[in-house]
Amino acid sequence: MEIAILQADITTLPVDAIVNAANSSLLGGGGVDGAIHRAAGPKLLEACREIRRTTLPEGLPVSQAVSTPGFNLPAKWVIHTVGPNRHAGQTDPYLLESAFHNSLQEAVQLGARTIAFPAISGGVYGWDLEEVARIGVETVDRFESSLPEACPGCLETVTFALFSDKAERCFREALDRLN
Ligand code: ADP
Fold first, then answer.
1. Does 33 sit in the ligand 1 pocket, CB within 6 Å?
2. Torsions phi, psi for 141 (to 5 deg)
3. Tell me, what DSSP letter sits at residue 88?
4. 10 Cα–ligand 1 center, Å
5. CA dist., res. 88 & res. 65, Å (int)
6. Which of 18, 39, 109, 171 is geometrically suited to a Cys-Cys bond with 75, CB 3.0 to 4.6 A?
């Protein structure tokens, strides 16, 4: 499996699945969540409302992941996860690790071969980008080690799509430290 670092708007990437750093309501927000809803079109909000009505009336808990189609996005699916909010006292790194891990697991269940992540919790939710990068990269690496060697249909490429120079630098450094 390849890990790629890109400075990019995640909504433009022609991958099988993009991950949304959503909030528990699933009803949209600012940052990458707002950008994904704008690019996917109103059907995405309808799909999220349907999930709330049927399976998640109280919203998506922190670290869990659910998927919808990508609608007008180049990506086939959107995997919505909720990162921990440091401003709400959610400072346990395991919560962020689980958000990455559960998104990867959802991708495998969907049969996605390519997936792109933003810097989950690295914006409004207030985590240091260095820490997001370390946890993101290490979680993907551990996930890869846990997959069977011959894994037809498994993930081939995990891309981190970073919005700023700083975020990109943090992820490159984290990946260098891993190798
Ligand atoms: P959170 O609430 O989980 O912190 P944010 O959306 O506030 O989520 O920020 C997460 C990261 O996503 C930030 O580093 C932000 O700069 C970045 N971001 C915002 N818009 C986009 C986009 N269109 N593509 C990729 N990353 C984005």
1. yes
2. -65, -45
3. G
4. 9
5. 20
6. 18
- Residue 9 annotated to the active site: no
Indicate the pLDDT class of residue 154, thresholds 50, 70 and 90. confident
pLDDT tens track for 80-98:
999 999 999 999 999 999 9
- Residue range(s) defining the domain that contains residue 69: 2-178
Predicted TM-score (pTM) of the model is: 0.97
How many domains is the chain partitioned into structurally? 1
Cα radius of gyration rounded to whole Å, the chain: 15
Give backbone dihedrals phi and psi of 157, rounded to 5 degrees, phi first.
-135, 130
Which atom of ligand 1 lies closest to the CA of 163? 26
Can you give the CATH number for the domain in which 30 is found?
3.40.220.10
List phi, psi (to 5°) of 166: -65, -45
